Every structure is written in C-alpha cells, then in structure tokens.
Amino acid sequence: xxxxxLKPYLGRLIVACSGGADSLALAHAxxxxxxxxxxxxxxxxxxxxxxxxxxxxxxxxxxKLAERFGADFEQRVVEVSRKGSLEARARDARYAxxxxxxxxxxxTWVLLGHTSSDQVETVLMRIFRxxxxxxxAGMPQERGQFARPFLAFSRRDTERYCQTHKLPFVExxxxxxxxxxxxxxxxxxxxxxxxxxxxxxxxxLRLAESARxxxxxxxxxxxxxxxxxAKGLGxxxxxxxxxxxxxxxxxALALFAESRGRRELQSVHLKSLLALxxxxxxxxxxxxxxxxxxxxxxxxxxxxxxxxxxxxIAIEVPQGYEQRTWRPGDRMRPERLKGRSKKLSDLFAEAKxxxxxxxxxxxxxxxxxxxxxxxQYLGSSWQTPVQILEKVEKAAK
Length: 397
Hints:
This protein is α+β, with helices and mostly antiparallel strands and 397 residues long. The protein has 14 helices and 17 strands.
C-alpha cells in the first residue's frame, strides 16, 4: 500500500530523511521504485539544524542506509534563528534548504514523510491557536515541488513497514520534549480526547477534508479579487476592500502574505492588515506585524518580503566620491529644482517612494564638498558631471 502511494511521483526525487519511521519508510519505498526502473535514483537529504548533538551520528546512519538502498545522500547544515518559535524557525530553515537542494539537482519532487497522524496533530495545533477554515484544512498533499505521499496513512502504518523490511529507524528526542506544542498534543491531549471519542483521528481528518473543499472555493474567489487589486509589489486599497465579505478579504490578504514569504501571520495580524486596506487612501499609515510592519502609502498597501533584508545596494563609486545610506536632515539639489536645495525626506515623499524602501536608500556624495550628487530612487543632483553620473547609474542598475 505504501509503495503504491509513490506511483504518481516520477523523475528525480529528493526524500527528506530524518531517520524516523515515516521518512525512512518513504526513502525505502522510493528506492524500491528506483530498483524496479520506475524512477531515477533518489537523493536522501538529511537536514542538520545544529540543535542536537545526535545529528552527526544520525546523518552517518542515513548515509549508510542510502548506500544500502542504492540511493544518493546529502547532508545540509542550516542555521536556525533563535527569535520567535523554535519549531517554526526550524521548519522554515528546513524547507529553504530543501528548496535549494531541489533547485541544484533539478529534481522533480521533494518528498516529505508526513502521515495522517501528523495531519491530526497539525489541525489540533491550529484549532488551539484559533484558526479559520483554511487552517482547518491542514497540510496539502502537494504544494509546489513538495509532496506528501503518505498523508493517507498513519504513523503506525510506517512503523509496521519499517518492521517488515527490517529498517532500523530512530526516535528524535525532540519528539518527547514537552516544550513543544505538538509533543504535548501527541502525548497528552490526544489520549485524553480519545476517551470522549475513540474515533477522534477519523473525525478530525473528515473535518480537514471538508475544510479543504471550502478552502478551494474561497481561494478561487480570493485570487480573482487579488488579481484585480494588484499594483506592482503592492495592493490597491480603499473602497473595493470595503465591498467584499471579511472572509474573502482576509483570505486574499493571507495569500498575498504567503506570496511575500510571510506565512507567520495569524488571524489577528490579518485583521490588522484588513483594517489598513479599508482605511482612507490619503496619507501614510502602518501596522506592526511579526517579521516587520506593513505600510499603506499613497493608496497602496506594501508588505515587505522577508527575503528583502533592507540592506543597501553596493555601488562602486568613482574616485573622489563615496556611498552611504541617507540620513535624516540630508539635503539635495535635484535636477528638476535647478539648484534649489530640499530635504531628501521631502523628496522621497513627493516621489511617492514607499517608506520601507526609503529606509535603506543610498546616496553618493563628493568627498571634497560633502554634497549629494546622486540618490537612489531620485537620480542625480543639479549639474552632476556626466562622467560621474554614467558610472554611478550603471553601477546602481
């Protein structure tokens, strides 16, 4: 049964393998298909988060198993930020590493060993956090190049598979660490809830399936609405957002946030974004969010991507000049003002440069006079020498 679950996935496969029963069963099944000439040699990837002393030994164990199975092996060491939820940051680092491996090997799919048991825990975690219908849908079987072939099977199914094929799987000690919500759900909440309903897992899985059906309808409408409101990297704000139901508007904002790499936003954050989109298009306003604020400016909502580190661009300036980040109080004589000086902050505002872009804007100054001869987003100052202008603008592209 588990072998049949991999039949839709052809080509070069990457299997995320931690050494647990789920991922080991998945790796073995993928290699069985490879030996039967149904797909290319799989690549087993072990992600070392740098959080556990056992990781090097586990990586060596999986490397030996890969050799035994006839698979390739690669270990990726990632750095996990200590800010916020350790679970969430480790997951983000893991997925980023797997995406990188997938791209470098031109793989067709990245296979993950999640089971229906993981799905139940995920839905319960989201219920505890106050999720909406999209969250109740749980994990999708496929998203982009990621696939979960075993999502219809339980953790017990993968353990039996490993026992049948004499696969020595390991138990991650973090799966017993009571600091993590998922661990508490697995070892405390689920056993207690089963006393009320012995078929609890099946009931939660039916709930997730129903939620997925409703989410498909909502997503279709939300994407259509987003396409109408898109403006470059931002969204138009105002009356259109006030004319649609809250549920559709919030889902549209959630999809927009995901496209900007901001999956950490919860319901309360999305409601703050909704208030921002329904506000007046006049002036500038912002709201604080995990990972950085959102800005409503000149009738457009901006949500900076987490991939945008707000670091200044690097320009190789000509001799006699220097590059630096602009400072409050800086003044410039732009070409259009024919030599009249004006504050850079005012010039940025007049040019309708979003606030999050202004923060890291750079200028080029003369070492002799200290005058700004060029500013990012604004261009050259009045009477900047042509040879200087050509070099700076070429380097800034």
